[in-house]
Structure formats: structure tokens, C-alpha cells
Amino acid sequence: MSKKFLPLISILLILSFALAACSPKATEAPVVEEPVAEEPAPETEAPVAEETEVAAPAEEELTGTVTIWHSKKNEETNSLNAIVIAFKEKYPGVEFEQLFVPADDLRNKFETAVATGSGPTMIIGNADWGPASYDAMLVQDLTPMMTPGLMDTLNDAAANSVRYKDAIVGLPINLKGVLLFRNKSIVPEPAADWNDLIAKATAATSGDVQGMVFETGFFFAAGHLYALGADLMDTTSGVPTFNDEAGVAWLTALKNVKDAGIPTVNNSDDDVNLFKVGKAGMIIDGLWNVKALTDAIGAENLVIDPWPAGMSGYVQNDNIYLTTSAAGDDALATYKFMEFFVSPEAQAFWASAGTPELPMAAGIPVVKGMEVTDPLAKEAIACFAGGTAFPVIPQMGVYWDPMNNAILSVLDKGTDPAVALQEAFDSVSGAVK
Asked: Which of 159, 202, 415, 429 could serve as 154's disulfide partner, Cβ 3.0–4.6 Å?
């Protein structure tokens, strides 16, 4: 499978649940005896009523309609339906409507509908929709409704991806992204840090077998920048912040890998292809290639390692959003469903969306400490625990070429890391608006 993201394959699904509402029976008014006339009491001011908090409705009293738009397919729709059914067992007064929209049309249809006050109360969409949709007042800040401590139960990188302008603009529902794969028949033990990675890769190199083929493409190498103490940008404004000693250490670390004689690739599938035929002991690649790598070298040989010290990878996720079309009981019911979606119970359904042909199709569960049975899924969770949030603001688009050019300038042309970083900084700064 190519490193390019594959488009979603979608199917048509419209599901609605309806519950008949039961109205309370009328009761007769009590008979009140007429009071005996008395001398009028002196006039007094009416007491001021004290304000009291309105108690939240009990589970069985929650009502409203949750309207979901999505582009999910096959097993993912089955898992979504299972989550809906489990939620309705807790809240039988809530109704559901689902609408499938092809992936290529979903965002535009959602934006058009919500902008006019119609459309869904909840949408399942890409993480990078969040900031722009929030700025356009299409999705709501979840903070006022959120159960305290909820975000602490989720993978840190995924939780950070929905924080924007002091708001929480959605909830992450899975984990995807960059991982460190190892063929343990070539490299028996995981690396502890950069130096150990180089040492183990060097020791495992023999003949036409490389201990590691190192991916330097910016998407795959940017996570190390954060692990070494730098930040790519201010995630509200998009202004670059990487031009410091930690940023220089990042480019220097990549240079050290190549200087040690470890082969490097840049946005190429050559590393994956060598790994598949048993000619590379370690590679950095995406979750989407788990099935292909397992088939190639066998589950008994494939390992996903935790990130060594000073290394990391981008974590990506799909999100669920509460739209600004949601109000009243519908908004409350929708948000309650969203919180349920990121509970261990619902995440177990979501994680089961894979098939033998395409395991982990819906990604890895986002809940910390959640038990999973698949060994590679457990290892992926541990690797993602050391991951970093992929920036989802629109300004990210101006970073790709300058940052990748800085990497290539250092590795292929011998440019000093500080000089290359300054050039990238100047280029990005001039493009950020």
C-alpha cells in the first residue's frame, strides 16, 4: 500500500430509531374547602424566591434526537449501529437519525446545511475540519457540557488535536498515524534512544540486509522534533516556533543517522518494500500498512515498538463534532452520545470494525488503558502513547515544502542544520497569514 492516504470507500446507510412518547395521565384537582372570612392581614412584601439549580435529567428522562451524518463503510457502520443500540439501552427516550453522505461530498454538504441552520446535530469527520469549522461557527465548543476529567481519559496527542483557541471543538474517536516497525528476526530487541537505534541498526546490517532504512520525509520525521523539545508552530496562529536549539538538534539527529551509514529514504516506499522481503530490520511507517507488513513477514516477526527516547511520530484521528444546528434537548442528547462514543464500552465496538482482511480498519481505541486482544493493537497503543498531535490548522499547508527541503538540504547537500532551519523558518514565516 502506498504511503499516500487512500480515499474512503463508502456505502449508503440510513438508520432511524423512533420511540413513542408517553404522556402523563391527567389527575383530578383536589377539593379545597372555602376558608372562613377573617380580618385582613397587614400588607407585606412578597418574599423573593431563591434561585435553585435545575437537576440534570436522569438517564431514563433524557430525550431529543441525535442526527448523525457520516461517510463510514461496511464494518464501521455495523460498529456505529452497535454503539447507537448500546446508548439507547441507557437512554431509551433518545431517537436517532443517520444519513450516509459520500466522503467527497460530506464536508461541503455539512457546511452548507449547518450554515443555514439545518443539517445534523453530529458529524463524524476528519480532524482537520475542527478549527476551520469552529471559526466558521459550524461546530460548538464542548467545554460547557463536558464531564470533568474526560479529556484526561483519552490519548494525550489525540486530545490535544481538538484543543483550539481555548475551546474543545470535537472529540477524537480513534488513533492512526506513524509507528516504528521492527522485524525481530533481524533486530531482536527494541532501541532505547537515538544512539541505541543507530547501534542496533548497524549491528544488524549484514550483506544485503539493512538493520534499518530510515524514512526522513517530513510527515514521518516531524514527530522527532517534538520529542527533542521543540515545537513546530503556535497551533492557534500557525506562526512557526521551531527555529531554536531543539530544532537544530532535530536536523542534527537525522544527519547523524545518515552519517552512521544507515540508508535513508524521503517519502518513498522503498523502505516498506525492503521490509516486506526481509531486507530491512526497522522502518518508520503508518498504521495503514499493518496488514501488508504482517502478511509479508508473518505475525510472529512483526513488532511495533514504543518510541525510543528523543523520537516520536504524528498521531492522527477522526473526530465527532457537535454542530451549531443542535439546540435544546437535541444538543444535550447528542453531546451525551458523543461522550458515550469515547467510553471503553463504545470504543470496544468501534475497535471491532476491522476484518481479517483489514484489521484495525477504524483505527486504534483512543481511551487510555483500554484492554485490547490483538497483540499488534496493544503495541500500537504503546507507540501512540509516545506520539504527538498532528497539527490540524489550515496553516499547516505552508510547512510541508520548506521543512522537507530543510531535511534534504542537510542530508543530501551537507548544509549546516542551523542554516537549513533558518531558511525554512524564513520561508514559513513569509507564507503564514
From this structure: 159
Task: Answer yes or no: are the C-beta atoms of 345 and 155 closer than 8 Å.
Answer: no
Same domain? For 208 and 220 the reply is yes
- Verify that 343 and 309 share a domain, yes or no: no
Residue 123, CB half-sphere, CA atoms under 13 Å: how many?
Answer: 29
Q: What is the residue-level pLDDT of the chain in tens, covering all 433 positions?
A: 455 433 333 332 223 323 233 333 333 333 333 333 344 434 334 333 333 343 444 455 899 999 999 998 877 888 899 999 999 999 999 999 999 999 999 999 999 999 999 999 999 999 999 999 999 999 999 999 999 999 999 999 999 999 999 999 999 999 999 999 999 999 999 999 999 999 999 999 999 999 999 999 999 999 999 999 999 999 999 999 999 999 999 999 999 999 999 999 999 999 999 999 999 999 999 999 999 999 999 999 999 999 999 999 999 999 999 999 999 999 999 999 999 999 999 998 887 654 444 445 556 899 999 888 888 999 999 999 999 999 999 999 999 999 999 999 999 999 999 999 999 999 999 999 7
Same domain for 146 and 85: yes
Domain tally for the chain? 2
Q: What is the CATH number of the domain that holds 268?
A: 3.40.190.10
Name residues whose C-beta falls within 8 Å of residue 361's C-beta, 6 or more positions apart in sequence. 74, 75, 76, 353, 354, 355
pTM above threshold 0.85:
no
